[in-house]
Amino acid sequence: MRTLAILFSFILAIFADAADFKIEETDAAIVITNGEKPVLTYHKAEVDPPAEADPIYKRSGFIFPLHTPSGGVVTGIHPDDHYHHLGLWHAWVETEFDGETIDFWNLKKGTGRIRFGKTLETKSDGKSATFSVIQEHVGYLGEAKKETVILEETFTVSVSAAKDGSAYLVDYTTAQENITTKPLELPAYRYGGCLAWRAPFSWDNRTNSNYLTSEGLDKEESHTSRARWIAMHGPVDEAKNPGTLAVLIHKKNHDFPQRLRTWNDPKNGKMFLCVVPVQEHPWAIEPAKTETMRYRLVVSDGKPDAEKIEAEWKSWNEE
Question: How many domains does the chain have?
Fold first, then answer.
């Protein structure tokens, strides 16, 4: 047994040494790679929607694409049914501020949006890569549609490798500060929050994709359920090999275990997720207050392994 333990430790050391995370920033984006392999891209500059879409759908401040260790892609962008879906992003929906309704999510309404503000830090040491940026949650108020920054958010993303080298660990942290003198009211609503995801267009939960929650629920029952984590899987390359994105929810997050919005439309099978802290109960971000949410994304090749995901959730929450 001692020999096996030594061998296992040696293998883990090899995987740890194999990680070579790098970060590069340009005017347009922040890109994290592992050696020569892409991991993720965060967009600082506004990305235009498809030519047939209204230009109002252009947006900055989101992650696309996100890759598995083999290079497969687990995110989609600008689907024609929801042009405002942008890989990995987040926004509040039906909010109330100073007597007005602001929707930071549905850009078509023209009442609000989120945008990149400035970079605070980028760093990498080979074993991990991290960036921290300011994102501005902007409302357009009154008849004049006066541009007003309501939330100033510190958004931090850190990438490392799982101990056995089988997955990327992406720590996704939002700290949203209300920089005004009035509360941002968050009525109970079915979607919106601090993490949303759209799958690649090849994912179809009728044929090749599905959800799995910490409570063992899939596409049939996961919608509106509460969970510690949720995993989604589907084909990530031309050979249709599966990949998995698991979203782990920290136990200190507001309204934990948080409720989920998932899709199960029998007509199209499309895959979408939103982790929703206000699905059941209203909330508010008070003036001069900062509310923080922490998530860990486990990005791997293959289908979900519930035991490994649960073990990662427990380990992360003990840190």
Answer: 1
